[in-house]
Amino acid sequence: MSLWSSPGGGRDAQNYGSTEQFGGSTRDTSQRYHQLCDSISSSIFSINNATATLERASKQLGTQADTDAFREKLHMTQQNANLTIKSTTSALQDLGALVTHGDKQQKLQSSRLRSEFQEVVKRYSNLQKQVATRQKYTMGVRPGSAAARPSGGGGAALQTGGWFDAPRQRPEEATSLLDDVESPQSPTQQQQQQWRQDLDYEQAMLVERDQRIRQIEADMLDCNQIFKDLANIVHEQGAVIDTIEGNIENTQQNTAQAVEQLRSAASYQRKYRQKTCFLLVLVVVVAAVVALVIYFSIK
């Protein structure tokens, strides 16, 4: 696997990041649910790949492989991973809204994906901070960098082995010599030209350093906002679960009351049947007695 393998994997995880209303038939909802789950799983795999790439690249910072092209690829890797993380956060929000009316298995799957995503983003963010710190401290003259050109002068040239190394001759001293043309130590025209070139070079290096620091800081992922969005999903689903649990408790209470009422009704019907049977027996006995009295009276 190449060091700069695409963090997007084999699937475009950003296609499922938009927010939309979930309506339509049950089949469409089920299809959308599986699409989101597949997309989020693929994105988690891609972020893991980007994390592994950053880990390998961090070991090459400050070495012969640390060129401008190398750092540009490192920048693009982080940019792609950041976009994947943002789109996956949106997809998790969509999934959370979708499973609100889903079954227990769908809610558990959504919670599992959210937990896996949080873990991989936290690991990626921690490694990204380490890489950013190492980038800043290895931002000196690197093989193949724009700033790594040799100074054309002799002993008077500015020798800079890194951004934090002091030059042999400070710029203000060189400027003072350039202005003080009457001094016994006044430099020759060639030396003045060389000093001006070195000063321009030093200034260009500082400008490049400032630009690269801003780029490194721009690559840093805002994990706080992502975790805040994920916490909102948990809060919303928790409120829905509380509502469902409340409905279940109410249903259980209503069921218990209904069972009790059915038992009371059954007891009442049983007593009613007993009374009816007793009355029927009493009527039959009375009728039999009357019939016997009439029979013997006639006889």
From TrEMBL:
What is one Pfam family matched by this protein? SNARE
Natural source organism: Amblyomma sculptum
Picking any one GO molecular function of the record gives: SNAP receptor activity
Concerning PANTHER family, the annotation shows: LD27581P (PTHR19957:SF38), SYNTAXIN (PTHR19957)
Alphabetically list the UniProt keywords. Membrane, Neurotransmitter transport, Transmembrane, Transmembrane helix, Transport
- BP GO annotations: intracellular protein transport; neurotransmitter transport; vesicle docking; vesicle fusion
Q: Where is this region: Disordered?
A: 1-30, 135-195
**Record keyword DNA damage present:** no
Q: What are the residue boundaries of the T-SNARE coiled-coil homology domain, all occurrences included?
A: 203-265
Q: Where is the composition biased (Polar residues)?
A: 15-28
Q: Which InterPro entries does this UniProt record tie to the protein?
A: SNARE, Syntaxin, Syntaxin_N, T_SNARE_dom
Q: Name one GO cellular component term.
A: endomembrane system
The family note in this entry says: Belongs to the syntaxin family.
Residues crossing the lipid bilayer are 277-298
Q: Protein name, please?
A: Putative snare protein pep12/vam3/syntaxin 7/syntaxin 17
